[in-house]
Amino acid sequence: MASNLAEDHDRIAADLNDGLIHRMFALSLDLHAALTLLGDHQAAEKISLAISGLHQAIKDLRTTIYDLRPPA
Asked: What ranges do the domains of the chain cover?
């Protein structure tokens, strides 16, 4: 049973990394590209904050995934 839980953990971690984390990173790249199109300093600042927030969310999600451990 512990082996099944470990396999489930690995599968879920891979699914989150290949899906959600990649999409979040792609969004941050899109926002970065949008920064070059803006002439408005306030809007650029807001987008920069959103990019930072996405990067922190990705880091937090990765930490949560790798901190998950199947019960002993």
From this structure: 2-67
